[in-house]
Specification:
Blueprint: E1 8-12, E2 15-16, H1 22-36, E3 40-44, E4 47-48, H2 51-59, E5 64-65, H3 71-80, E6 85-88, H4 97-103, E7 107-111, E8 123-126, E9 147-150, H5 159-162, E10 176-179, H6 190-199, E11 205-209, E12 220-223, H7 229-235, E13 238-242, H8 246-253, E14 257-260, H9 267-275, E15 280-281, H10 288-299, H11 301-311, H12 319-328
Parallel strand pairs: 1-3, 1-6, 2-4, 3-5, 6-7, 7-8, 8-9, 10-11, 10-13, 11-12, 13-14, 14-15
Helix pairs in contact: 1-12, 3-4
Amino acid sequence: MTGRRGLRVGFRCDAGVGSGVGHLVRCVALAEELCARGVDVVFLGAVRGSEWARAQLRERRLPLVAAPRTPVRLAALARELRLDAVVLDSYDLPEETGVALRSAGLGVLAIVDGDPLGQQADLYLDQNLGAEHRSFPPPAEPPQAGRVLAGARYVLLRDSVRRRRRAPRRPGPVPRVLCFFGGTDSAGVVTAWAEALRATGVRFEGTVVSPTPFGTGHPITVIPPTDRLPELMAAADLVVTAAGSAIWELLYLGVPTALTWVADNQLIGYQELVGRRVAAGLGRAPDAEAVAALARLLADPAAREEHGRRGGGLVDGKGRERVADALLALL
């Protein structure tokens, strides 16, 4: 394990109702690893409309500094903060951001999901399952790409997930279901999927995580975003969610999962996971076919557990250590 005190690393990412919290969550996981090695960390960006996301930084004493939009001004801020490297995790940054930071003498790690969107970096991280087998398009100009860390070996997990495992169990007659769509439900779909679960007509006990309370009844309990999510995932017999960043936590825990997708960039991961039968596929919408698929899973404990068995072991929990080693080796 590589660690050097006196280094400072910035994380350029945002979180909020519109963009979700997945970028911030995986950056927090890497920040935890760097802090454990004595590296100073600062977040550069904005958190809008999510008290839960703000709390993730506050509780870990990770400072948040507003980030300018233009690459040149961001590079100037990085120099002012005496940063040695910057981690970029956003789909909305100008293409020239990595170039400006590297020209200012900083190391750059870009966290991507398939397409690097023209960003130039010294390191690229694509933690999606099967990414190591896909071609990686280099940035447009200048035509030089850094090293690529690809696949589930590099999944970034938070401490709260890494210290928890799902205990072996004998499924009971009434399955426990957890339904959530990130910390903000940015696509506004959680209510519809809760209703799809109710429409199965199969007995279950459900917990639905929603930033906005909504009326429901037995057997569903609605709760706000919570730090107890890893505990709730590990206790579930089935999780209904999107193919976003939380899927890596579920794979690590070995929890049977039924997937949809709520953003186009999640479709690659959805197809890979469902294609390998690591997770059950529900399609894009909570329609009649999705309700039927949920009904089969709720009624068949063996089918549920088979998905969890296939996913177990794909994520070993050491990805953030490998990424930190690679990043610090640049500096």
